């Protein structure tokens, strides 16, 4: 975490960019297991794109929320997780989406929520419910079958201890 007393994504970050680039150059990228849309470019990132220079530019360049939202919406996916202190991009994606688009927007944190777990667990629940509401054919399920087992009034404890 870079601690600063001024805004990220601005010229004010310029003095710490060289230090950040040196630190990041020591890291090794691994294959992604999800799509990553850059909030700087709006394009999908590949592991080789995560260079020290990219992160330096990302730190001092303005965030392009509109480009990022369009990149997310054109990805063909409908479930999005925003990692950050406030669901800014989730709100922008929703505002830029077609009204009939079935989106599942999952923020990781909310500044207004004092317990961080509440937000992430609510997002996981939203994702789980929507995932379970889809059949293997990709169609929305009309209902979910429940167990047909009648309630049995059987004791499940010992009457005495030997």
Query: Order of SSEs, N→C?
Result: HHHEHEH
Structural class: mainly alpha
Can you count the beta strands? Answer: 2
Task: Specify the overall morphology.
Answer: elongated
Largest sheet: 2 strands, parallel
Please state the CA-atom Rg, rounded to the nearest Å.
23 Å
- Residue stretches low in confidence (pLDDT < 50, at least 5 long) are 134-141
Strand order of the largest sheet: 1-2
Terminal-residue CA separation? 60 Å
Tell me, rounded to a whole number, the average pLDDT.
78
Strand content: under 5%
The number of helices is 5
Percent of residues in helices: 25-40%
Descriptive report:
The chain is mainly alpha-helical. It has a domain at 78-139. Helix content is 33%, strand content 5%. The chain is built from five helices and two strands; from the N terminus they run H-H-H-E-H-E-H. It has a two-stranded parallel sheet with strand order 1-2. Helix 4 links the parallel strand 1 and strand 2 (104-107). Helix 1 packs antiparallel against helix 2 (52-60) and helix 3 (65-73) crosses helix 4. The longest helix has 17 residues, at 116-132. The radius of gyration is 23 Å and the shape is elongated. It starts with 16 loop residues before the first helix and ends in a 30-residue tail after the last helix.
List the helices and strands and how they pair.
Blueprint (H helix, E strand, L loop, with lengths): L16 H9 L26 H9 L4 H9 L5 E4 L5 H9 L7 E4 L8 H17 L30
Parallel strand pairs: 1-2
Helix pairs in contact: 1-2, 3-4
Short summary:
The chain is mainly α and 162 residues long. Helix content is 33%, strand content 5%. It has a two-stranded parallel ribbon with strand order 1-2.
């Amino acid at each position: 975490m870079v601690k600063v007393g001024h805004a990220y994504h601005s010229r004010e970050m310029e003095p710490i960019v060289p230090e950040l680039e040196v630190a990041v150059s020591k890291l090794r990228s691994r294959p992604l297991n999800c799509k990553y849309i850059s909030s700087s470019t709006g394009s999908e990132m590949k592991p080789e794109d995560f260079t020290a220079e990219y992160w330096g530019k990302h730190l001092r360049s303005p965030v392009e929320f509109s480009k990022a939202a369009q990149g997310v919406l054109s990805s063909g996916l409908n479930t999005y997780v925003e990692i950050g202190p406030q669901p800014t991009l989730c709100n922008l994606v929703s505002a830029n989406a077609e009204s009939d688009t079935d989106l599942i927007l999952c923020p990781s944190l909310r500044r207004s929520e004092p317990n961080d777990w509440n937000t992430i667990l609510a997002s996981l629940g939203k994702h789980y419910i929507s995932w379970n509401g889809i059949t293997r054919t990709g169609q929305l399920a009309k209902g979910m079958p429940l167990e047909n087992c009648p309630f049995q009034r059987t004791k499940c404890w010992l009457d005495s201890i030997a």
